[in-house]
Write a structure and sequence with these properties.
By secondary structure, the protein is an alpha+beta fold. The protein has a 4-stranded antiparallel beta sheet with strand order 5-4-8-9, with no helix packed on it. Strands 1-2-7 form a 3-stranded antiparallel beta sheet, with no helix packed on it. A hairpin with an 8-residue loop joins strand 8 and strand 9. The chain starts with a helix and ends with a strand. About 24% of the residues have low confidence.
Length: 163
């Protein structure tokens, strides 16, 4: 009887040790996955430390009750932390207007309009208003992007009609 009791205790201890080792392996695997994710995020940040998905851009037509067409271009911070967007002396926003044949009819280079780094708070955006007027009837394409030291220019395009 003592041998059976000793065997049961020994088997119980072995299972306990085995379970502890298995648990440790799971934790190690989770830690490794976390480290790999952090490494991947760092690799995807380019030379600025900003993950491309942390910012998103939009371009929408708005009614500002003017004689022309008005648009708002935004680059929004999608994170819960402030993001610093690095601009050099050529920084700014650029937009190009093309007619329906694709011919460039207007270009506004915003080079030098933003000469310092911009901090975009969590959930906030850099907003640029663009007003276009004096164009003849037709279909146009407006393309807008940000000139900064980020790898992504956050390019946006919208097609609209002047009647």
């Amino acid at each position: 009887m003592k041998k059976i009791l000793a065997s049961i205790i020994l088997i119980s201890v072995m299972f306990s040790i085995s379970a502890c080792n298995a648990e440790t392996k799971v934790e190690s695997s989770s830690e490794k996955q976390s480290e790999n994710l952090e490494k991947k995020e760092l690799e995807n940040t380019g030379n600025t430390g900003v993950i491309p998905e942390a910012l998103s851009a939009s371009l929408v037509e708005v009614d500002e009750n003017t004689d022309g067409k008005d648009f708002i271009y935004e680059v929004k911070n999608n994170t819960d932390k402030d993001i610093e967007i690095p601009f050099d002396e050529n920084g700014g926003h650029v937009y190009v207007l093309r007619d329906e044949s694709g011919k460039e009819i207007s270009r506004q280079d915003g080079y030098g309009t933003i000469q310092t780094n911009q901090i975009v708070s969590a959930g906030e955006a850099i907003t640029i208003k663009i007003g276009l007027g004096g164009y003849k009837k037709g279909t146009y394409e407006l393309e807008v992007w940000m000139e900064s030291e980020l790898d992504n220019t956050y390019n946006q395009t919208i097609t609209f009609t002047i009647e």
